[in-house]
């Protein structure tokens, strides 16, 4: 595929030009792995679990990197004083000095790369890299089945309800919209709830509940505003349809508000057709169905 070849060529060009192939990254005496870890720990420190999630590292490899930084007297790893089951890593005074040196050298390398370019070229490069980062993040999101009572689900739903309250002409009260019953209805064996994650941060969600033996209903489908326009809504919808099939449904229904024009357009493109009202949702103006 030409697109894959372009990405591979860019990777080779970029990694060579910013020194990722050097045994001593940015002249620090350390390779990229421990240098990046040191930078991610930051001046305020962070939890070891958070580092593992943020960087997507195997726990064994992360432990080896942390031991190396400890041996170099750059970090200290202690029990979290608020939760003895967790560990916290913090920079030592020497580590903070090394962190500043790493940050300054990284800044110099980046400036050296863009200095030969004109102002127009720098803007073009910044725009292209912003788009590339956004698309790569979109390509690597994960869609996981979760308990609707989990912290990730509650975080996504709180943002979803807040947006509905802003967008609906009458505002939105989750209690009027049936949110109180979601936790039980959106759990197996009759339902399901999924959250879309980017680097373990919720950026979308959606649920499925049973209407009858053959029919499932999609509920609480939402994509974070910053992540729209990347096709994530269609991917989330397809995942919910797949889950519906696994639960034995042969038909899906859903409702939506008249102000959610993007959602209405997406459902139409995905093969949903208008039907008569099938529920008493006070915020719904349109009802759709699709045979799987």
Structure overview:
This protein has 292 residues and is of the alpha+beta class. The chain folds into two domains: 100 residues, Winged helix-like DNA-binding domain superfamily/Winged helix DNA-binding domain (Arc Repressor Mutant, subunit A), CATH 1.10.10; 150 residues, 3-Layer(aba) Sandwich (Aminopeptidase). It is 46% helix and 21% strand. The protein contains ten helices and ten strands. It has a seven-stranded mixed sheet, with helices on both faces. It has a three-stranded antiparallel sheet with strand order 1-3-2. A hairpin with a 4-residue loop joins strand 6 and strand 7. Helix 2 packs across helix 4. The longest helix has 22 residues.
Largest sheet: 7 strands, mixed
From the alpha-carbon coordinates, what is the Rg to the nearest angstrom?
Answer: 24 Å
Distance between the termini: 31 Å
Major sheet strand order: 4-5-6-7-8-10-9
* CATH domain class name of the largest domain: Alpha Beta
Tell me, briefly, the overall form. globular
Helix and strand composition category: alpha+beta
- Binned, the helix content reads 40-55%
Question: Might you state the CATH topology name of the largest domain?
Answer: Aminopeptidase
> Assembly type of the shown chains?
single chain
- The total of helices stands at 10
SSE arrangement, N to C: HHEHHEEHHEHHEEEHEHEE
CATH homology group of the largest domain: Gcn5-related N-acetyltransferase (GNAT)
Strand proportion: 15-25%
Count of the domains? 2
**Stretches where pLDDT falls below 50 for ≥5 residues?**
none
Query: What is the average of the pLDDT values?
Result: 91
Per CATH, which architecture of the largest domain? 3-Layer(aba) Sandwich
State the total count of DSSP E strands.
Answer: 10
């Amino acid at each position: 595929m030409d697109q894959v070849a372009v990405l591979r060529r860019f990777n080779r060009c970029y990694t060579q030009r910013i020194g990722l192939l050097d045994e001593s990254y940015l002249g620090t005496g350390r390779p990229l792995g421990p240098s990046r870890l040191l930078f991610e720990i930051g001046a305020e420190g962070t939890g070891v679990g958070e580092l593992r999630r943020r960087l997507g590292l195997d726990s064994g490899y992360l432990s080896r990197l942390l031991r190396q930084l400890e041996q170099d007297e750059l970090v200290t790893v202690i029990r979290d004083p608020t939760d003895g089951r967790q560990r916290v890593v913090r920079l030592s005074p020497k580590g903070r000095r090394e962190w500043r040196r790493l940050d300054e050298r990284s800044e110099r390398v980046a400036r050296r790369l863009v200095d030969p370019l004109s102002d127009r070229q720098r803007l073009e490069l910044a725009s292209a890299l912003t788009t590339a980062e956004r698309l790569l993040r979109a390509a690597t999101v994960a869609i996981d089945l979760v308990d609707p009572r989990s912290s990730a689900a509650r975080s996504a739903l709180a943002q979803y309800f807040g947006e509905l309250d802003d967008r609906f002409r009458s505002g939105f009260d989750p209690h009027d919209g049936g949110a109180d019953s979601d936790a039980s209805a959106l759990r197996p064996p009759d339902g399901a709830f999924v959250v879309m994650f980017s680097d373990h941060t919720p950026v979308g969600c959606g649920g499925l509940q049973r209407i009858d033996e053959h029919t499932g209903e999609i509920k609480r489908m939402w994509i974070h505003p910053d992540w729209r326009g990347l096709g994530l809504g269609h991917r989330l919808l397809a995942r919910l349809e797949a889950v519906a099939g696994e639960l034995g449904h042969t038909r899906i229904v859903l409702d939506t508000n008249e102000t959610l024009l993007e959602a209405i357009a997406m459902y139409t493109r995905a093969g949903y057709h208008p039907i008569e009202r099938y529920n008493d949702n006070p915020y719904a103006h349109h009802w759709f169905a699709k045979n799987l």
